[in-house]
Amino acid sequence: MQRDQAAATARPELHPDELAARQQLAACYRVFALLGWTEMIYNHITLRLPDSVTGGEKQFLINPFGLHYTEVTASNLVKVNLAGDILDSSVYPINPAGYVLHSTIHAGIEGAHCVMHTHTTAGVAIASLASGLSQSNFYSAQLHDMVAYHDFEGITIHAEEGPRVLQSIGQRSAVILRNHGLLSWGQTLPQAFAVLWTLQRACEIQLATQSMGAPLPVPEAIAAKCTRDSLQFDPKRGAGQDVFNALVRQIDRIDSSYKN
């Protein structure tokens, strides 16, 4: 892509921590594409840059609007601040709907270093159910007391919705945006991925179950135990790093151009 080449050559030499963040996030976009979690050129994964790069200012990377996830690379990711200013002379715009929602969460939840949002069929289907997610399968049982809901207010381009989003989420890292889709956030990208993958699987299985009949509920005590026992989310247990690394190795075998 000519614009990618222009963007890459226009960038000054990057801080090693920014390069690492860019490559990790670009790899994640390719992982989402591998899993089928894409929605044309829409939806977003954002990652806060470390303080070693920003000097303490909250800045984050977001996908360039107009590119498919399979076209995202480390060099064409766009760096923005919480005001929505593009900080790296990118030749690409950003999607206002992504900036508004993600900047709200990065700004308002201190531990939200990575935010992911999808419109998968299963995710939107469960988000459109009045009853929401059913605590009735292996995966939803691992999300006991971790799921928040936010009522649909339309396309997320209005900043005034931000305080209500934060109030709805609280400290819950798995979020169902009613009538809209799924969202997760985490202290790290792999942790946010582990939460979203578990939520997505829970929705897929619920969708399949409800096509056959009424789900069999998991008792509250058992679900709470499953969440305590899960290896997926605890930073002391890797918080999804191993599974994310395994998926990136798959991407590397297919196409490592995301590193560019």
Any overview of this molecule?
It is a single chain. With 260 residues, the chain is of the alpha+beta class. It has a single domain, classed as Class II aldolase/adducin N-terminal domain (L-fuculose-1-phosphate Aldolase, 3-Layer(aba) Sandwich), CATH 3.40.225. The chain contains 9 helices and 7 strands. Strands 3-2-1-4-7-6-5 form a 7-stranded mixed β-sheet, sandwiched between helices. Strand 5, helix 6 and strand 6 form a beta-alpha-beta unit. The N and C termini lie close together (12 Å).
What is the fold's blueprint, element by element?
Layout: H1 2-10, H2 16-35, E1 44-48, H3 51-54, E2 59-62, E3 78-81, H4 96-108, E4 114-118, H5 121-127, E5 147-150, H6 162-169, E6 174-177, E7 181-186, H7 189-212, H8 220-229, H9 241-254
Parallel strand pairs: 5-6
Antiparallel strand pairs: 1-2, 1-4, 2-3, 4-7, 6-7
Protein name: Class II aldolase/adducin family protein
Family: Belongs to the aldolase class II family.
Domain Class II aldolase/adducin N-terminal: 23-207
Keywords:
single chain; alpha+beta; L-fuculose-1-phosphate Aldolase
